[in-house]
C-alpha cells in the first residue's frame, strides 16, 4: 500500500502520457453523466476547470449551461478551505496561486446549497468509491461539511482502479457514484 504522496508521484506521469485517451473518454463520460438521476434532478452543478491530464470539463460546463443549470466553480481559500461560486465565464475567471482558473471571490455569491458536485481527482477505486485528490484535503473537508450534495466522479481509464493501491484515511469521503468508461 502506497502513501498518497508516493502514489501521486507514480500517477501524475501516467496521467500525462494518457492525455489523448482521457480526452477521448470525455464525451462518453459526459453522456453517461447526463443520463443519471443526479444530473437530471440537479439545478446547481459544481465542477472544476480541468488542468492538463484531467478530464476536460468545458463540455460539461457547456452542457449544464445549455440545460439551464447553474454552474459553480471552486475557489481555494485559506486554511485548506474551498467555496463554490457561480462561473463568471472564461474572461472573468482569475488564476489562483496554485495556477487554477477560478471565479474571483465575492462573499455574497458563495453557494452552500449544491445539488451535484462532479469531484476531481487523480485516481478512483470502485471498491469503497474512494479517490486520491491533488493533496491538501480541500474536497474532503468540503464534502464532509456538505453531505447533502450528491457526488459523482467521471473517470477515464488511466484513473480507474478496482481497489485502492494508496492509503485510504478515515477523513477520506467516499463518493456517491463513480462513472467509468
TrEMBL record:
It is an enzyme of class 6 (ligase). It comes from the Bacteria. Gene3D superfamilies: NagB/RpiA/CoA transferase-like (3.40.50.10420). Keywords: ATP-binding, Ligase, Magnesium, Metal-binding, Nucleotide-binding. It catalyses: (6S)-5-formyl-5,6,7,8-tetrahydrofolate + ATP = (6R)-5,10-methenyltetrahydrofolate + ADP + phosphate. One of its GO terms (molecular function) is 5-formyltetrahydrofolate cyclo-ligase activity. Its EC number is 6.3.3.2. Signal peptide: none annotated. The keyword Metal-binding applies. Its cofactor is Mg(2+). Belongs to the 5-formyltetrahydrofolate cyclo-ligase family. This is 5-formyltetrahydrofolate cyclo-ligase. It comes from Lacticaseibacillus mingshuiensis. The lineage of its organism: Bacteria, Bacillati, Bacillota, Bacilli, Lactobacillales.
Amino acid at each position: 500500500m502506497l502513501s498518497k504522496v508516493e502514489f501521486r508521484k507514480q500517477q501524475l506521469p501516467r496521467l500525462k502520457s494518457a492525455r489523448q485517451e482521457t480526452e477521448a473518454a470525455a464525451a462518453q463520460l459526459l453522456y453517461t453523466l447526463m443520463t443519471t438521476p443526479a444530473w437530471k434532478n440537479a439545478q446547481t452543478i459544481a465542477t472544476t476547470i480541468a488542468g492538463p491530464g484531467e478530464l476536460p470539463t468545458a463540455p460539461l460546463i457547456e452542457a449544464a449551461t445549455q440545460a439551464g443549470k447553474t454552474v459553480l466553480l471552486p475557489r481555494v481559500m485559506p486554511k485548506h478551505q474551498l467555496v463554490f461560486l457561480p462561473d463568471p465565464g472564461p474572461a472573468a475567471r482569475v488564476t489562483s496561486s496554485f495556477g487554477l482558473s477560478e471565479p474571483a471571490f465575492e462573499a455574497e455569491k458563495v453557494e452552500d446549497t449544491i445539488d451535484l458536485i462532479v469531484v476531481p481527482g487523480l485516481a478512483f477505486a470502485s471498491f469503497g468509491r474512494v479517490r486520491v485528490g491533488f493533496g491538501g484535503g480541500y474536497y474532503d473537508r468540503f464534502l464532509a461539511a456538505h453531505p447533502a450534495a450528491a457526488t459523482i466522479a467521471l473517470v477515464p481509464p488511466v484513473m480507474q482502479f478496482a481497489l485502492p493501491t494508496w492509503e485510504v484515511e478515515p477523513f477520506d469521503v467516499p463518493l456517491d457514484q463513480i462513472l467509468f468508461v
